Amino acid sequence: MYTFLKTLLLGRPEGLRSRLRARIHGSCKASPQTASGAPSGKAPASPVVEGAEKSLALKKEPPRDVTPPDGYEVVLHKDALEAGRIIEIIIGGTAIAVANVDGSFHAISNTCPHAEGPLGEGTLDGSVVACPYHGWQFDVRDGSCKTNPYAKVTTYPVQVVGNAVCVKL
């Protein structure tokens, strides 16, 4: 129960909230933890590297030479997110989850309506992401919920311009 509450409040050890907390508090290394949540005393496999793109585990930083369409913002390089992956991104003060479904990019709200779980930390199977907290499933293409037909997450328009993935909030 303690581990669940800790994850709910602080996020997963390798999740966006943990990486951001480490950056804010000036720590370059997070203390690795065992399954019980207690520190293991071992050095982390890889330290958090300075730079937002690297701390988010992106391979390439967003292109700076691309002018996005009106109302859109460049969120990442199209090669930074492998097919079958999803990632959390904060843009304009809004947390979104961007998914690469077989080379097609989709953006949804990062918050699960069930228990406010971070969908960008969930697992992506085809076009369906499962919330890491309770497993609620959402189709990233249209925001529909596979677990509860009355629930839905917001979707955001996405355009790829050159090498840039652009999202309109």
Explain this structure to me?
- By secondary structure, the protein is an alpha+beta fold.
- It has 2 domains: 1-45, no CATH class; 59-169, Rieske [2Fe-2S] iron-sulphur domain (Rieske Iron-sulfur Protein, 3-layer Sandwich).
- It has 3 helices and 10 strands.
- The protein has helices at 2-10, 16-24, 52-55, and strands at residues 72-77, 85-91, 94-101, 104-109, 123-125, 128-130, 137-139, 155-156, 158-161, 164-168.
- The strands form 3 sheets. Strands 2-3-4-8 form a 4-stranded antiparallel beta sheet, with no helix packed on it.
- A hairpin with a 2-residue loop joins strand 2 and strand 3.
- The longest helix is centred in the first third of the chain and has 9 residues, at 2-10.
- It starts with a helix and ends with a strand.
- Mean pLDDT is 79; it is low at 27-55.
What is the secondary structure topology, with strand pairs?
Layout lengths: L1 H9 L5 H9 L27 H4 L16 E6 L7 E7 L2 E8 L2 E6 L13 E3 L2 E3 L6 E3 L15 E2 L1 E4 L2 E5 L1
Antiparallel strand pairs: 1-10, 2-3, 3-4, 4-8, 5-6, 6-7, 9-10
How would you describe this structure in keywords?
three-stranded antiparallel β-sheet, 3 helices, alpha+beta, Rieske Iron-sulfur Protein, 169 residues, 2 domains
Give a brief description:
This protein has three helices and ten strands; from the N terminus they run αααββββββββββ. The protein is an alpha+beta fold and 169 residues long. The radius of gyration is 16 Å and the shape is globular.
